[in-house]
Amino acid sequence: MLLTAPAELTLTQRQCLASTDMAITVVDTLSGMRRVLRAPVEERGDALRSMLEPISGMYRYFPGEVDLVAMHQMASGFPLDRDEERCLDALDTLAEAGAWERVRDALNTALDVQLAATPGLVAPDITVLLMLGDPGDALFMGPSLGVTGNGGISGYILITLWPFPENVARLEATVVHELNHNLRYSPGGVVWDPMTVTVGEHVVSEGLADAFARQLHGDELGYTRIGVPHLHDDAVFAKVVTGLDVTGMQNFTAWVHGDTHAERYGATPVGLPTGAGYAVGNRLVDAYLAATGQTAAQALHADSAEIIATALRQRS
């Protein structure tokens, strides 16, 4: 099935895969962002809101009406009132790197691998937005290393990045990571219940997504960058394990992303460095995959409690 785009939108690709009825739609945000950044300042908000409309369904679980521009700003999206030339130059860098085509091709390849590993998987139609980040956001450009992703809401993937060379090189792995989240939490997969979900589920999901990205693109590119410094830190591992049963999504940022991110969003720090949960998630998932002989793709819907229990048994 092919998604139908609103008449005012240009799409860089509309790809319907023969192996499934799903469609992956990569929105032409390159043209859209250029239009926004070249518009008079007072018109940029409306232009951005129109460009973001294809992912409005990403916020369907939010109470009340969601301001797409406000969500863009909260997610460290590019600014509307400064740094225009810097952002336009960054867009040229992404265009020269073939970013949008690479995103499409990486998703198509990854989906084929996933379908081969899990026959009968019902995959959703997915709308993908690749967005430029805010070069004036110290957290985004510093601790976050200029890249964030959101793929946990079925049917939508949003990548926000600054084209540092490392991020451009990792573009395929980044979007494949988010595809893994999307398929894990799509209908028929794992249910993310805000009332009962644990830090352990979130940590495991990051490890599974990285393992899938590494399965396709290798260890050098497949790890989420913020987790790499702590992959072999046993003190960080031990600390995160103490929080795996914590519930309440307001608490997750500290345990998964670390204290610096928690402070930014008003959460309570717990004494963890940036990317701690990603590092621990990789270690838990790798131990589970080694014990079971599965690939990351085969473990797409594996129960997080089983993954944790299996991994911790291997360490005892």
TrEMBL record:
Domain DUF2268: from-to ranges: 123-308
InterPro entries in alphabetical order: DUF2268
Pfam families per record: DUF2268
Domain of life: Bacteria
Name used for this protein in its record: Uncharacterized protein YjaZ
Species in which this protein is naturally found: Goodfellowiella coeruleoviolacea
